[in-house]
Amino acid sequence: MGNEFKKIQLRSIILFASLILGIALYIIVLLTGRSNIFMQENAASLVRASNRQMELNIDSYLNKVRKASALLFSDSTSYTYDPSDDSVDDYTKLQIANQINNNITDLSLLDNYADFAVIYSNDQVIGSLSKVTKSMYVNGGMYHAFSKILDEENNSDAWVFGLNGDTAHIYYFERYNSYA
Fold first, then answer.
1. CA dihedral in degrees (124, 129, 130, 136; nearest 10)?
2. How far, in Å, CA of 52 to CA of 31, rounded?
3. Which of 25, 111, 128, 148 has the most CB atoms lying inside 10 A of its own CB?
4. Which residues of 68-85 are buried (b: 16+ CB within 10 A; e: fewer)?
5. What's the pLDDT at 108?
6. Cβ(46)–Cβ(38) below 8 Å
7. Is 48 helix (H, G, I), strand (E, B) or coil?
8. Does 79 score more than 80 pLDDT?
9. pLDDT band at 139; cut points 50, 70, 90
């Protein structure tokens, strides 16, 4: 009888241990599954929030570029100047060009633009252009190329990526009049 009691006791212990182990395994599987779902939902939410923040930052930067461009031409001298006008003497043209260049420098230094310039129909450039942009138009034709882009867009402004294969820059073009 003592032997049977020990057998029953051993079976009870094994059954109880198996039951506890089974319950623990069930709880672990349940909790792991729920935590995976929770982590996936949180990760997806964080990615959506991050994408939205990037979108807002890009929109803000693009609007800042547009505002800087508009500020440049808030002075009538900037948008009425025509370097190809022979009725204006060279000294006056130089003074106007220097004034426009100073305005461009003031606006471009605040946001550290690589290219910030006015391109005129005679390919005169007032402002600053990066070496990359200058190297694309060593033989001239910059105004014609940019004007063609704006004409294709049927708009007075355009955002351009991949200009002449350059994918490191994004350009904003805006036409102010028939010669700039």
1. -30
2. 31
3. 128
4. bbeebbeeeebeebbbee
5. 80
6. no
7. helix
8. no
9. confident
Are 119 and 125 in contact by the 8 Å Cβ rule? The answer is yes
* pLDDT of amino acid 1: 63
Helix (H) or strand (E) holding 180: none
| 158 contacts 150 by C-beta, under 8 angstroms | yes
Q: How confident is residue 138, by pLDDT bands cut at 50, 70 and 90?
A: confident
Residue 85 one-letter amino acid: D
Helix (H, G, I), strand (E, B), or coil: what is residue 173? strand
Long-range Cβ pairs for the range 79-83 (8 Å, 24+): 79/176, 79/177, 79/180, 80/177, 81/180, 82/120, 82/179, 82/180, 83/120, 83/122, 83/124
CA count, 13 A, side-chain hemisphere, 1:
0
Quick one: pLDDT band at residue 158, thresholds 50, 70, 90? confident
Q: Strand, helix or coil at 157?
A: strand
Nearest-angstrom CA–CA distance, 168 and 128: 17
Is residue 176 a contact partner of residue 72, using CB atoms and an 8 Å limit?
no
